[in-house]
Amino acid sequence: MTLAHSRHAVLVLFVSLLVFGVSRDAAAVTTCADICPPTGVCNITSQKQIDPGSVVDCSGRDIVVKATVKVTGGRFELIANDLTVNKFKRIEAVESEFVEVGFDLTLTGTLDVQGRLQARNKGGDSTIEIQAGGDLIMDNGPGIDMIGTTESADGGELFVQVEGTATLRSNIKTDGKLGGTSDNVNIGGDIYIEASGGSVIVGATISAIGRRFGGGLIELYARDGDLIIESGGTVDSHGDNDESDGGIIYLEGDNSMVIDGEIYADGGRGSNGGTATGGEVILAAGCGGLEINGLIDVSAGEGGGGDISTQIVTGPVVVSGTVKSNGLRYDGDGGSIHIWSSDDDLTLTPTAVIESRGDLTTESFSSQGGSVLLSGCQLDMQGLAPGNGAVINMSSPGGGRASLSGAKNPLAPLGFGDFSLRVSEFASVDVSATDGVSTLPRITLSTDPGAARDGFCAFQPNVACTVDAPTCTIGWTAYDCLDAEPNTDGRMAQFSNPPVISTEPAADFECGPCL
Predict the structure, then answer these.
(1) Which of 239, 284, 281 is nearest to 262 (CA)?
(2) In 3D, which of 430, 513, 438 has the Cα closest to residue 476?
(3) 258 — pLDDT class (breaks 50, 70, 90)
(4) Is the pLDDT of residue 136 over 90?
(5) DSSP code string of 6-67
(6) CA angle, 203 as apex, 316 and 120 as ends, to 5°?
(7) Model confidence at 176, in pLDDT bands (50, 70, 90)?
(8) What is the Cα–Cα distance from 28 to 377, expressed in whole angstroms?
(9) Which of 33, 167, 197, 337 lies most in the core, judged by the most C-beta atoms within 10 Å?
(10) Separation of alpha carbons 267 and 240, rounded Å
(11) Percent above pLDDT 70 for the chain
């Protein structure tokens, strides 16, 4: 045999061994017997390395993770009954720049995460999927961590479906990597959590923050219960720098929804709005109704505020917190805020603040206030005293628009009688009612200190919706509040453009007991 032939034979043998070696490694799988004793509860007390692509089938077994369970450069599935991850312990997928990492947890029982679930993204994406026949319990531990770790890394994707209740009092993060360049979007990830047989309770931070070009998508569903954002709980899909828009947040409680915490889909936060656009927050609830006692914010910069809306709420709606969609910089316009109950009443308590302002900074010349639509079977805007009650604020150099409607006794009872509507000189207000019987309350219009003009004016309408005129709309347009003159009772009641009375119906309501 010649030297050339010898070298060729050695090369063929080397390549064959390499190929066979790779094939053997690729085919390697981890079984339940590799991580658990033969019977009883499976207590994992030492680190376990899972081969990528493995289906670790421990059907019917309870597993307690007391160490680290890890997969490197890939994904695996774990099948069990109850699964508990002890405090300071974890199940993790080690980040990869080239392949997707993560794991699936398929359980017939409950998932109790006292420690951490982690699948960090280095550019190859990361996904965690959880399906449990019982509850998801996350109580004051490290939580779920799926953040991007390089400047080309977006946040990860989390999909959770449980048949019981999801109690989320540990953080869940699917944030993009801080920083980034114009070539790396670093958007927030996706979070989908559904409790098909119970409630969703949020007492920590759930975030899909976009570091450049956009926050992510967060969807929470309580299919047979309540959706509760506790005081101290946060749902956050904001965009974090100049060009980073707010994300999308969809929340649904089939019975009721209570927001005592904070919800953010604001844009351009790191640069006070920048050129970004606000995101979108959509709320849906059943006969238990909706309470907004905390904060919802979709404000942004040049792109303008985002959208806040109730998709459908069949029970009563009560707002005592702050809802805002403001334009913050560069002539940014206010966004749209539409809050309504399809079958019940809408109440704004004296502490309620609804803002859809245009940019009021000195660099703005043409920003517009946004649109605010508030309606319910009965619209009740409560005041503590004249000039001291619920506030709707659409101030801007270009004005804004509010539409207030009720299908019963409009805007009543009002306690001591007032709410204030802050606008600019080109603002307009429509107040409408169907089947009403009482005189509309006093509306106070005042310009914001940073608006084009500073002044104060108020108008007391003297027209009532009666049985003989069951549909009526009274509108005002204030072109220049400084031109107003006091009327006989001392109120500023005369505008350059007089009130307009129209007979168009306010809305098509079918109010009655919620079924």
Answers:
(1) 281
(2) 430
(3) very high
(4) yes
(5) HHHHHHHHHHHHHHHHHHHHHH----HHHHS-SSS-EEE-S-EEEPTT-EEE-TT--EEE-S
(6) 125
(7) confident
(8) 64
(9) 337
(10) 7
(11) 67
Q: For residues 359 and 394, is the Cβ–Cβ distance under 8 A?
A: no
Q: What is the pLDDT of residues 373-404, one digit of tens each?
A: 887 777 777 655 444 567 777 666 665 666 66
What gap in Å lies between CA 284 and CA 464, rounded to an integer? 33
The DSSP 8-state label assigned to residue 451 in this structure reads S
Local structure of 3: helix, strand or coil? helix
Tokens of 274: 């920048």
pTM: 0.83
Position 96 scores a pLDDT of: 78
Indicate the DSSP class of residue 359: P
Distance in angstroms (rounded) separating the CA atoms of residues 423 and 444: 10
Q: Tokens 């597993």 map to which residue? A: 63
* Distance in angstroms (rounded) separating the CA atoms of residues 515 and 512: 9
Distance from C-alpha of 155 to C-alpha of 82, rounded to nearest angstrom:
28
The number of residues in the chain equals 515
